[in-house]
Every structure is written in C-alpha cells, then in structure tokens.
Write a structure and sequence with these properties.
Elements: H1 4-16, H2 28-35, H3 39-51, E1 55-58, E2 62-65, H4 70-90, H5 96-114, H6 118-137, H7 139-156, H8 162-180, H9 184-196, H10 198-201, H11 210-217
Antiparallel strand pairs: 1-2
Length: 230
C-alpha cells in the first residue's frame, strides 16, 4: 500500500508535468480508490501538501491545488532567486560530472521543445533548478526547491508560451556554460537575471479584489449601434 509520501510525490510529479491544473479538485474518496489505500493516508498526504502550500482546503468543498496569482508568483520567484543565487554564491566548485549532467538536462529540454511536448517541457524546465540545487547544495535544498518549483509551474501553466519556454531553456544553457567555465559569479548573475525577469515571461493578471472585481464583472454591456436600413 502506498504511503502518504508516495501520494505526495505522485501529485507533485503530475503537477510538474501539467497533468493537474491549478485549482484541480483532489477528492479524498477518488484518491483513496486510485491508490488503493485508506482515506486517512490520503488525508495525511493532502495535509502535508497544504503545509507546503501546494494544496489548500475549503470547508464543505474539499482539497484543491492552489491557484497562484501575480502576488503569489512574485513572492515565490523572489524566494527562489534568494535561494538559488545564494547557493551559487556559496559554492566552491562544480564537478565535471555535475556539469555534464546539467548539459544533458538542457539537451533534454531542447528535445522536449522541438517535439512540442508541453508536459515534458514543463517538467524539465522546473527540474533543472532542482538538479542544480542537488548538485551544489544537497538533497535537503533540492527538496525545498522542488516545492517552490511546483508553485511556479502552476503559474506558468496558463501563462507561458513556447517562445518564452525556449528563452528559459537558453538561459539555463548560459548558466551551465558559466559553471563549466568555473565562473560562479557569472552563473550567479545569469541566475539572478533568469529568475528576476519572470514577469516579462509570464503575463499573470493581478489579483482581483472584492468590490473592484464585482464592479468590473457587473458593468453593463456597451449598447449596440443601430445601423440605419438604406
């Protein structure tokens, strides 16, 4: 029988691959049936994901994947930028094996882009940062980056074009080139630019608040012009 950790991993993998969309309902009964386990195990998994801010629960409605807005996206990308540039700043060296692994990863991203595989492309673009964190900072840091990457994937799912994905892949390649040259300062600068320009790559609408959102929704439609019959 799968553990709650196994269920967490499957939900995260499906989200990274764009198989689960922002706001997707995660029913306890359905998940228990799919995983052939008790609802208690499912609830443990969903509670753990809620603590990691990947899912949220609503009274009488159940569990849902979060739907990050522009403010959430900014906070998440700022957290990633602080962590990932810090890792590069504190790194002493990158092994040739790690560089080759990252180069191979970038090539897989290019292949996914060439094959127009949106799910695999999304998974790999996010996983690059997890692999880099694992190579430079170890498994604990990689786990933290994985959770943050899930949130940014939920942002990118509806707001990233194939052209913007290609730009991200090219920026990943530039980071790896700097690491291969032993220029950690250049790699840090490239990472800061990569994560600091997310708002130009992902056009996320701002959060709509209360009265303003309702006022906009209830505005009367513009009257249709009457065309005289000649």
């Amino acid at each position: 029988m799968p553990t709650s950790a196994d269920i967490c991993d499957r939900i995260i993998e499906a989200t990274l691959a764009r198989k689960l969309a922002p706001g997707a309902h995660l029913g306890e009964v359905q998940l228990a049936t799919l995983f052939a386990c008790s609802r208690t195990v499912v609830r443990e998994a969903l509670t753990a994901l809620a603590a990691r801010r990947i899912v949220e629960v609503t009274a009488r409605r159940g569990w849902f994947l979060v739907q990050p807005d522009a403010e959430d996206a900014q906070a998440t990308f700022e957290a990633r930028r602080a962590i990932e540039t810090g890792v590069l700043r504190c790194a002493r060296a990158v092994s040739p094996g790690a560089v080759e692994e990252l180069r191979a990863h970038v090539q897989r991203q290019r292949d996914a882009l060439a094959n127009d595989d949106a799910g695999l492309r999304s998974t790999l673009l996010g996983d690059f940062h997890v692999c880099l964190a694992r190579a430079l900072g170890g498994p604990l840091l990689a786990a933290i980056l994985r959770d943050l990457t899930v949130r940014t994937t939920l942002v990118a799912m509806h707001h990233q074009s194939p052209q913007e994905a290609e730009a991200s892949c090219a920026e990943h390649a530039a980071i790896v080139d700097a690491l291969a040259a032993g220029d950690l300062a250049a790699a840090e600068s490239a990472m800061a630019a990569h994560l600091g320009t997310w708002d130009r790559k992902l056009h996320v609408p701002p959060r709509a608040h209360g009265l303003a959102a309702l006022r906009h929704a209830l505005q009367p439609a513009a009257p249709q012009a009457i065309v005289p019959i000649s």
